Amino acid sequence: MPISFSHLSFSWPDATHCLRDVSGVFNARVTGITGENGSGKSTLIKILIGELEPSSGTVIRPDRVGYLPQDLGIAAERSIADVFGATAILHAIESIEAGDPRPEHFDMVGNRWDEAERLRKHLHEAGLSSLAADESALSRRLDSLSGGEAVRVALAAVLAENPEVIVLDEPTNNLDGDAKESFYHFLENTKNQVIVVSHDRAVLRRVEETAELYQGKLRFFEGNLDYYEAAVRSEQDSAARALRDAKSVVRRELKEQQSMETRLARDARRGAKFSREKRKPPIAMGNDKNRSEHSSAKRRQECKGKVAAAQAVTDSAAARIRDIEGVYIELPETFVANGTRIAEFEAVGRREIVAGPERVRIAGPNGCGKTTLMNAIFASSPRAGYVRQRIDLPNEATVMAVVGGTPQRTRDQLARLCFQNDKVFAKIGTLSGGERFRVELARAILREPAPTLLLLDEPTNNLDMLTVEWLASALDAYRGAIIIVSHDEEFCARIGVTRTIELS
């Protein structure tokens, strides 16, 4: 049974509208949901799986729905066994084996005496052979794993429940190249119905149906990312032509209105002259004046109506044109001369030096220590700004409080990052993954003194495609040094990475 929903609406406690009367059915085998950061994609799927209650509307879902959340960092203290929902069973087995024969332990275990082996099998199938072979792995916390390993553990746990529908929120975040290829293979071959929220173009090119969340409305397109983008371009071209035509009609009607007023003024002057010269009897002149005034009023009303109708068509056409300005990221005007030592660190047994405005990429498979190395570089670099992979911000704090700095300067910069007006006082816990990234970026670039080194750990995770474009342009223009961890080859090329340090 597919997930269907009818007349869904959702507003946050501050009355901000997120969804407006949304209805639909996910019929395709794989549906991709796309939309700008903060458009409500994660909110929508939390409503679909029953984690959030809509303000109004209904959802019909099957009994077994698997869900992989976007922000696994929220549950970082959970163990691998917790993620699989097996901690209580494993604890009961350990208690029985230790000589505790209480009935409740046997009731908990049931017929699942091979639970540990079952979980290791799922880990192995997820490409986590080293974890599967580790006897103590099931008790390891998620925050002891790399970002990619944590995602693969969570996905393995979802698949272990054999769900009828799988709902995935940004599943390729933090995955290395091999892990991404495994996930793409899964998407192409799974018999499960999958609903996936993603900004990963490779993922969205593998879906059969695309659903776009835009300005609180959800629209379905029967095709993948390429079909969806072509359809939107066609719509925008049509809307632009309609707007040009409508503006032309408005100009024509306004010109006609001006010409009519000129004619009416001329007729009025002629009538006044006739009256002064008494060319007709007074009663006839009065009748002519009344008829003229009535005719003039009627013509003015008709002309005013035509202008208003033309303007309404123009407004309707303009409303179909999308606002694509998006985020404007302005990095500090830092200048680092060639040869200036910015950072020194040990990597794979060698002493590495970053000098001048270099762009250095740290690469390697999930779990090889990339984030650990980035943390060490940051600790030894007093003028570095750091955007972490796992963004850990206090949920109850406001955007302004977290970013800090001079209030007016901070507000100006946050406005360029799409935190305008009262949005700067939004609590971190209400923000999307992409919005949380922009807060972390603001913290990194607005520090004093301005950073001469930017450390970026998987910066394109959670970002919509337009924001990725803006970020790439801003980093390309930045005159300081950059050390980046990223599995996005295209993005690294865009920002001009000059060398790569490969960790084994």
TrEMBL record:
Domain called ABC transporter: residue spans: 3-240
Biased composition (Basic residues): 271-281
Entry keywords, A to Z: ATP-binding, Nucleotide-binding, Repeat
Positions with biased composition (Basic and acidic residues): 254-270, 288-304
Entry annotated with the keyword Nucleotide-binding: yes
Family matches, as Pfam families: ABC_tran
Top-level taxon: Bacteria
Renumbered residue ranges of the record's region Disordered: 254-304
Entry's Gene Ontology molecular function annotations: ATP binding; ATP hydrolysis activity
Keyword Ribosomal protein tagged: no
InterPro entries: AAA+_ATPase, ABC_transporter-like_ATP-bd, ABC_transporter-like_CS, ABCF, P-loop_NTPase
PANTHER family referenced in this protein's UniProt entry, alphabetically: ATP-BINDING TRANSPORT PROTEIN-RELATED, BLL7188 PROTEIN
Official protein name in the record: ABC transporter ATP-binding protein
The species this protein was found in: Corynebacterium vitaeruminis DSM 20294
